User: What shape does this take?
Amino acid sequence: MAQLQFRQQAERQKDCSAQNDLLEADKNIFQNSVFTRLRPGLEIGEMAFSSILPIKETLVLRNSPLQFGFHLAGRGRGQIRRGQKTRETIEAYPGSVIYSFLPGTTCVMELPENEHFQVINVYLERDFLRDLFSAQGDNLNSLPDPLPAFLFGRDKIFFRTHAMNPRTRLVLEELTNCPYHGGLKKMYKEAKVMELLALQFGELHHCPPPPRLCQRTKEGLYAAREILKTRRKNPPTISELAKEVGLSESLVKKGFRILFETTPHAFVLSCRLEQAQELLLQKDLTVSEIAWQLGFCDPAHFVRQFKSRFGLTPGNYAKTRL
Assistant: This one.
């Protein structure tokens, strides 16, 4: 596992003017990661690292590929600017998929200290996708938005964040645990990446774009999520949470579904289970002690929830990581 170490908080600006400058920027920042060119116009980046100090990178993107970012571990955010105006904030969290095209923007990426990250990025260039769909006889105009605009060369920025479905998680696990070497390894990775793309584009076909939320509402929801993460052992009620962030109860519940594709309760449970993974690896606490420490009503409930999420009981999970 690579570790990004800086003498002070990293604040650097990269002016990226290569043909695929987002990919080049990622290669410069995450130098110990693995990048594989699978086909002309199709590349994958596999990143696993830990931040010792806070990281802040400013990327000036003149050219940009279409990108799918699969976030398996670690939290971060990006401020997307076009000109002097901050357009949007992109939040990455474990289990999220970020689908983006950001030409002509400045992206300020911020990663917290003492955080472990595992991210798989897939970079797609126009010619690759145009040839792929045209070879199958697809009418490019009938593809789900915003693919037609991208394929016809219109530089309209877009991004969307959604939660991974179980099938996507399984393919990512197979991809990261490739059993082959050499040419077979590359062939296997290409097959898995194409399967990932089919899953993501299939979701775009069947899922309408989520309703828009104003920036103030988004900021309130991000604050609410941070409160739940920090106080996951004894989280506030929806009513208390709504008052703290200045939103109505209904908007908190609706906004969580739109922005994070989950509910406040499910998010708290996810935070507890992720912390449970870390505590199990430390070997200092029993399963019962971890359950009580994380706020579960009883150890048996904790075991059921853990197995439902990760496919193993806490005890078996700890044994497999010995």
